[in-house]
Amino acid sequence: MSVNEIISRHLFYPVHERLRGRSTLGQWRRLRKNDRLDMAQFEALRLDKLRRLLAHCRESVPYYQQVLQDIGLDDVRDFQLADLEKLPMLDRDVLRTQGEDVQARGYQHKLIPYSTGGSTGEPLVFYTDKHRESCLNAQKLRARSWFGVHPGDRQVDFWGSPIEMNRQNRIRQLKDRWLLNQVVLSASHLTEQRIAGYVKFLHQFRPRLIYGYPTVIYRVASYITSHPGVLGSYRPRLIVCTSEMLLPHLREEIIRAFACPVANEYGSRDGGMIAYECPQGSLHILGEQVIVEVDKPDNDGVGDLLITNLDGYGMPFIRYRIGDRGALDTTSCACGLPLPRLRELQGRANDFLVGRNGRLVHSSTANYVLRGIPALKQYQLRQRRDHSFDLYLIPSRALTETEKKTISDGLNNILDEIVPVNFHVTDSIAPEKSGKYRWVISEARA
After folding, report:
1. I need a labelling partner for 208 at 20 to 30 A (CA). Which of 105, 226, 399, 442 fits?
2. pLDDT beyond 80 at 167
3. pTM value?
4. Contact by Cβ (8 Å): 110, 338
C-alpha cells in the first residue's frame, strides 16, 4: 500500500465523510462485525431493524399509518418476516400519486431529492437521506473488503451518468484524485483512441479497484486482449461491475484481459444497495439493508423482486416493486457469510423478448445467438412491437448470407415464431444518455 493510500484511508476519507454529514466508516466497521454472526444472530438483527422501521412508519409516515391501520397492526413487537406479505406492494404509481404521504413527517429538512428513469423511461422523483446514503456506501466498502480492497485504495470508475458527470468540476476532480484516490473516466464516446488513452492511464495510475458498467469495461478489456502486453505487469485487485447485467461473455473477456476477480454489484437509486458477489461467486443479499421477496414465482422460483429498504427512514420503501426479476437461494454459501443469497438475477422486466403467445424470452438468449458470429464486433438488437427485429451491427467484414440466415433462424427459434430480421450496418452504435450500452432492447409487450 502506498503512503498516499494510507493517508487517504486514515485521514482524508474519514474527514470527507464527516464533512458530508455521513457516518459511512462507522457503519462499515459495524457491517464487518456482522460478517462473523451466525445465521440465527443475523436473522434476529434484521428482524429487529424491520420492527423498528415499522414502528417509525406507524408514528411518522402518513401512507404507512393508513396501511398498518388497514391490516390491524397496532403492536410491531410480534411482527415476523413472514408477516410482510400482509402489507401491500409499493410501486411507482403510488410514489407518483402519494409521494408526499410516503415521506416521514419531521424529516423534510433531512431529505435529499433523487430521480431515476430506469429502463422504463418513466422518471421517478423520490427522496433519500444521509443515514441511508451512509449505509449504502458502507455496504459497498464492506463487500469490497471481502476481496482485500479498502477505503482509500486507488480506484477508477468508468461512469457515464449525467448526474455524476455534471458534478465533476475542476475542484472536485482534484479532490477526488489527490485526496481520495478516485478517478472517473467517461463511459461515453468510446473511440479506439480514447480507450487507448484509458488503458495507458490504468497502467500509470495502477488502481486496485476498477468499477463501472460491464459493457464499457468489456470494451476496454477487448482492447487489452488485442494489444498484448499493454498493461505490463499491472493487474487490479478487483473489478466490480454494476448497473447492467453482467453477461457470461462479458465476464469471460474481462477476466481474460485483467486476470483478476470480477464481482457483480446489484443495486439501484430507488432500491438501494441490494446484493454483492462474494469471492465464492454467490450473489449475497445485503440483508441488514434490504429484505428481498419474490412475487408470484414461476416453477423455477423466478418472479418480480420486492425490496424493503431497512435504512430508508426519510421515505420508507416497503415491498417496493423494483422492476427486476430473480429467484432466491435458501442454501448457505461456502464463504461462511450469514447473508442470504440470490440464486438468479434476470435483470429488468422489460429486458425480455416476446415470443409466440406472449412467451417471455430473456435477452441473454439472443446474445448467445449473436456472439456465435465472429464477424460481429458490436451490435444492438431491437425487437419491435410486431415482434420483428432490427439488428444494428458493426462488422469486421461483410456478413455472408449463411451467417445472416444463422442469425435469423436462431432468433426465430428462441421466439418460436417466424418474424423478419432486418440487418443495418453502421459505423457506430451510440450509448444511452447514461453511457450504458444496451445489447438487446425490446419494444414488444406480452
Report:
1. 226
2. no
3. 0.80
4. no
